[in-house]
Amino acid sequence: xxxxPRDTAESKRKITRRGLILGGAQLVFxxxxxxxxxxxxxxxxxxxRLLAEENRINIRLIPPTRGLIYDRNGLVLARNxxxxxIVMVREDVDDVDEALARISRIIPMSPEDLARTRKExxxxxxxxxxxxxxxxxxxxxxxxxxNAPALPGVSPERGLSREYxxxxxxxxxxxxxxxxxxxxxxxxxDPDPVLQIPRFQIGKTGVEAKMEGDLRGSAGTRRIEVNAxxxxxxxxxxxxxxxxxxxxxTVDAGLQNFMQARLANESAAAVVIGLDKGxxxxxxxxxxxxxxxxxxxxxxxxxxxLTENTYRPLASKTVQGTYPPGSTFKMxxxxxxxxxxxxxPDETVYCPGHLEVGNRRxxxxxxxxxxxxxxxxxxxxxxxVYYYDVAQRVGxxxxxxxxxxxxxxxxxxxxxxxxxxxxAPTKAWKREKRGAEWVVGDTLNASIGQGFVLxxxxxxxxxxxxxxxxxxxxxxxxxxxxxIEQPSGAGVDLDISPAALSHIRRGMFDxxxxxxxxxxxxRVVDDALKLAGKTGTSQVRNITKEERARGVFRNEDLPWERxxxxxYVCYAPADDPQIAVAVVVEHGGGGSTAxxxxxxxxxxxxxxxxxPPLEAYPANQRREVEERFDAMDLMPxxxxxxxxxxxx
Amino acid sequence: xxxxxxxxxxxxxxxxxxxxxxxxxVLLLTAVAGVGFMMLYSVAGGSMTPWAxxxxxxxxLGLAAMFIVAFIPIWFWRNVAxxxxxxxxxxxxxxxxxxxxxxxxxxxxxxxxxxxxPSELTKIALVMLxxxxxxxxxxxxxxxxxxxxIPVVLILLPxxxxxKQPDLGTSLLLVMGGAVVMFAAGVHWAYFAAVTAMxxxxxxxxxxxxxxxxxxxxDYQYRRIDTFLDPASDPLGAGYHITQSKxxxxxxxxxxxxxxxxxxxxxxxxxEKHTDFIFxxxxxxxxxxxxxxxxxxxxxILLFCLSAAFKTKDRFSSLLIIGIAATFFFFFALxxxxxxxLAPVVGVPLPLVSYGGSAMLxxxxxxxxxxxxxxxRPRGR
Lengths: 648, 381
Description:
The structure holds two protein chains of two kinds.
Chain A: H1 5-43, H2 45-52, E1 55-62, E2 69-70, E3 76-89, H3 96-106, H4 111-123, E4 129-136, H5 138-146, E5 154-163, E6 177-179, H6 182-187, E7 201-203, H7 206-210, H8 212-216, E8 220-227, E9 232-239, E10 247-249, H9 253-263, E11 268-274, E12 280-286, H10 291-296, H11 300-308, H12 330-340, E13 349-351, E14 354-357, E15 360-363, E16 371-373, H13 375-380, H14 384-394, H15 396-405, H16 427-434, H17 440-447, H18 457-469, E17 478-481, E18 484-485, H19 498-513, E19 532-538, H20 545-550, E20 565-572, E21 579-585, H21 591-608, H22 622-631
Parallel strand pairs in A: 2-10
Antiparallel strand pairs in A: 1-8, 2-3, 3-4, 3-5, 6-7, 8-9, 10-17, 11-12, 11-21, 13-16, 14-15, 17-18, 19-20, 20-21
Chain B: H1 3-6, H2 17-20, H3 23-43, H4 52-71, H5 74-98, E1 100-102, E2 105-110, E3 115-116, H6 118-136, H7 145-164, H8 168-185, H9 189-208, H10 219-229, H11 239-250, H12 263-266, H13 278-311, H14 315-339, H15 357-375
Antiparallel strand pairs in B: 1-2, 2-3
Helix pairs in contact in B: 3-4, 3-13, 4-15, 5-6, 5-7, 6-7, 6-8, 6-14, 7-8, 8-14, 11-13, 13-14, 14-15
Main location (chain A): membrane
Transmembrane segments (chain A): 20-39
Domain Penicillin-binding protein transpeptidase (chain A): 269-602
């Protein structure tokens, strides 16, 4: 279609008009840009000149101060200690190799350290300071500062590093921190920028790792002026990050110290739980190690010594180790039977020393047998045959149900590393995991805490606490975060008949106090501090018929790793329970000889809040006990400050 | 055909065309490119490599392209506008499949001798097509809803494809370039008012869709917007660019720190110092005077284009020149706003100055179109 000339002329005018409007708008915008430029370059020039004339601005992250950890009485268990380090900013250094060589003349550095530093320098942005040497002495700092003109881009910095004043006592509880590894970074979806700070330390194990989110805090930023060679001239502005949250544990440092000392170099674990709130008052695993060594970078030799030790010092045996509970499990079987109504407490079972079931013979620990045994005697003297008989009537499902009710076979949610679930076996479990049908022999073994049953010392302490209170006491180790009290673990009523519980409690009292009780030797003579306990000796091997015939029965004749585990659980005081204690001595032999004395000392220490009174011990044992206490390397009694908000 | 045929005798032909080239515009373009060479030489620490020398070669190539395009009659370009548009659409789709991923975006096709960025080509092809469209459309029908809808679809088609790459900066330029041609062609005011309102709605939608599975933009684009709104939120990440860019610019003062004396850019404070952030180096080293001079050169280029647009007698030429000039304007306006902290970092280079092959070639070819319209306009003897 041919446009008319009039049409064309009019449209041309319109284009010109609109073109002018557009041109005008563009000009106005450019005017705006000019003003903005003038504003920045002329009016604000002084400010920017100041920043950029001979200095430049750098933005650096301020690592947050890690939260402190206190014990229940306000004693510091993990604090931040000031130290010095040397950092290097790559873009300000002329020759990295030359600079490193100069620094290593002042501060000795191993070839590995140097290689790591070089790698780090290459990896980071050129303006990010990289730590060359950590934990340098004040003299070395001074020497670096004096040599500043020869070392452009190198400067000393002050930093904080973690320190554990209680050393080895809390190694398994609090754990330790270490530098962020590539593995740590790769595990995180959206890593906190603060993790990019070279050698930033994060929790690796224990409470430090599990509560990392609260303890770490968030990074601040600071804008700093640096001169032409990169030295910091001054700080321009500072946006403080947030400090990590302080937290208080339920653990009593004094008790913990006593427990570690009492366990000494045994391969053993002990747990003390306060019954009112489920507070873990002490949780000791021996042998232990010094977490400070890990923070500072443990030497290969030290590390090898820890990993190659057969007593496994790195393992947290209280929560991670699971053991056949042995006779300490008998309360579970008895309670299950009482609740199911299949036994009467006064009903007796004849124990000839063994029981034939099918074509197998199940032995009692006492070869001669216990004769007629009722419920009370079965606990007091720990008769196995009684439980073989009872277990067949109750069945494994009811026993396991009771075990779970008492806190066995369930994972207690604590901020500790590697908390084990243990095992309260059922028929379905065996079919699924072992691919075999449950046989009656399995029930018999389980009834005396052998076979498939596994429990950690923590779970045994929880079980004892629940028997002592009748409540579902749940262990907790965090008392408060930033002063906010954490939920109590007092628990609700377990719905077990009081009559059944009182039968069990009486049996346990007799274990520790009746003349024929298995733990009579470790009785307490002070009426206000009496224990109610149960010994346990769990086999880690099968005793063959030949061994039995030959009479190889003595633990001492066996190599360490094949000896029985010694266990003892108790609550105290017997008439007004305050605490529950569980002690497991790995391959320690008999529960009454290896575990019960330890548990008694720990229970009395926990109740008395000081060294146990000698008067509580039977007169003929006092001398031995006193000598033992004298030999222990305990920390001096400390004044007990209230948990302060101040930082070390 | 129209009056072009009627007036054909008054249009220069053969070697006489050389006389009618707008030499002032050529000189201005060369001056701007010269500023670019200087800055690229400076940010490389006083070295022709790795940026200044290749850039010079590209500019020479660009000049050649401009002259070739300029000597081909403008009516040829009008006739191939639709073809160019279709070709660029196909290239945009192609880049989805065989494109090379660079800087987290799929934008390039490797042709062997040059990395082609089809979205650059699209900007010019779109303006050509729209100018051709309004050349054919009777003036009375310009504001008819149906005939407004057609160019809108033509604009949105490539915009959508570019946004998918993802390249927010170029898709913005496409929309704005197309809108300018429509505006210049005389489409009623009300449409633009409506689109502005809708645009505001879209921005709302973009933010509302964030975090859902059908979010419009990539996460990094959202983060850039966040950072623009609050640079302090990420001072060592994306906010770093803006903060450092402002410091470099501001520290220039009236006269700057002198050639090759800018510490901010030379000491690697700006990671994209040779591309998107090159203006900060200019402003740091030559101060307000330097920055203003470049802005002045750009303004003169726009002025020459506009006057050429008014002098041409046909709608296609006028609209094409206005469209190209506007695209050029949006280029540097967006880039400068970005480095001055007035706009989010969207990744738009400074035209003719930033290091980059595709953009330079396409822009020079576009100015070839301007020259062609200028040369081939009818003149009195």
